Amino acid sequence: MNLKFYFKSAALATFACVYLIGCSVTKPALDPSAGVLIRGPYLQAATDNSIVIRWRTEKPTIGMVWLGSSTDNVSKKGSEDAPTTEHIVKVDGLKPETKYFYSIGDKQAALQGNAENYFYTLPEPGKAGVYRVGIFGDCGTNTVKQTDARDQLIKYLGSNYMTAWILLGDNAYNTGTDAQYQTNFFNIYKDNLLKKYPLFPAPGNHDYANLRGKANDPLNSSGSADYYKNFTMPINGESGGVPSKDKAFYSFDIGNAHFLSLDSYGDREGLIYDTLSAEVKWVKEDLAANKNKQWVIAYWHHPPYTMGTHDSDKEQDLVKIRENFIKILERNGVDLIICGHSHTYERSKLMTGYFGRENDFSPKFNLSNSTGTYTGADNSCPYVKSSVVNQGTVYVVTGSAGKIGGAQPTWPHNAMTFSNNTITGASMLEIQGNRIDLKWLSADGKIGDQFTMMKDVNQTTNLAVKKGKQLTLTASYVGNYNWAGSSETAKTITVKPTETTTYTVRDQFNCIQDTFNVTVED
User: Fold this and answer.
1) Residue 27, pLDDT score
2) What angle do CA 117, 123, 125 make, to 5 degrees?
3) What's the pLDDT score for residue 296?
């Protein structure tokens, strides 16, 4: 039976399509006056083939989402089963790295859906590409400092798409209530970041209202803090990684990079520095299962090293994380650890094996003496790692996306090669194949700090070719290419040697060199 024909009225036909047979429904006319949009839309739990779109309305409605290749070519892709004010619609069956325009609303009217309502699905896990991840630490203040940091990141992006963005905790001051999230977070980012870029959050102590261990601890009622009500996390492994089954911590993939979002304050059968806690057991399992990822990045709120607004020599959460937890990450090859909490920006060199107090630090823990800024200045070459040994981690504190603070008497921390406590800023992580760059975008419009890390470069390759045959040579790194004795500037060149020849390619700053020893055979 043709159910569309059976239902005589348009309203009944729409009801049949949406609730009985799941067919495509033309989007109703855009009519923001049909209902009050309180929050959103915002993008959650992104994968290479699905996404969760959330929003909040003043009155209960049955939420619907329309997707398509343009604002004028969308069709119904998801709907809810019952009226609600807190709309959470998952849309799946999508293509990787594909741009989708979307509208939200109900069967009567679309509340929002224009040229600014779009997203790209994530790349397939393991795929190398160009990916940008924004980083906001301690952002939720509803101050000009917060909007300054936001605006500079948007300015830096320009016409480029940001693959995702992450939160380092303390996302809504002072106690992480739903009302504070509305004014200090959702209202600040609704028109620029939330509607276009998938978000992967982590909690901070203020998201728990600093209540751990007290009678009204939010964790006493299974994570009832509003943080957990406001976000949808990919806890079932849908975005990559081992399922955590806990909103407090989870992992996800963005192409060839694997991320762990962790909870450094809540008590999940033990704290993050309790090595037998549920969270740490999961971290070990997840890292073991993702050793094939080219890059592994972990982020959470409380930093193991800081002398900013917090003191990592004295505060027990920071001390125990440094002494008990980060060595687990280091021995499992985590490349980059990003934290907030201190309202500063602080960044180490590539280092390993340092778990002591500030005065215990010495340059022997650095695997490179370079600043890593890769600007052509003296001693600024990239940090280089091998995926075989995979030793060394860079530590970043970027907790000034909404606040800027003072400092401890021993500021800056001895392990940090760059520190700033005078201006706010957010950070941008750029991933391109076997190269990553992190840039701190300060509120004065400058790149306040940056560093580059590469993996499996400076290669020597021995090849053989028959005389008269062509051979393709490809540099191991991402950057600029100066082939010795040639005007070629591409990453890949074709050669036709007549005799045994050595070819070399260098970057523009003479930091990286690949060598190809080509034997010509008769």
Assistant:
1) 66
2) 145
3) 98
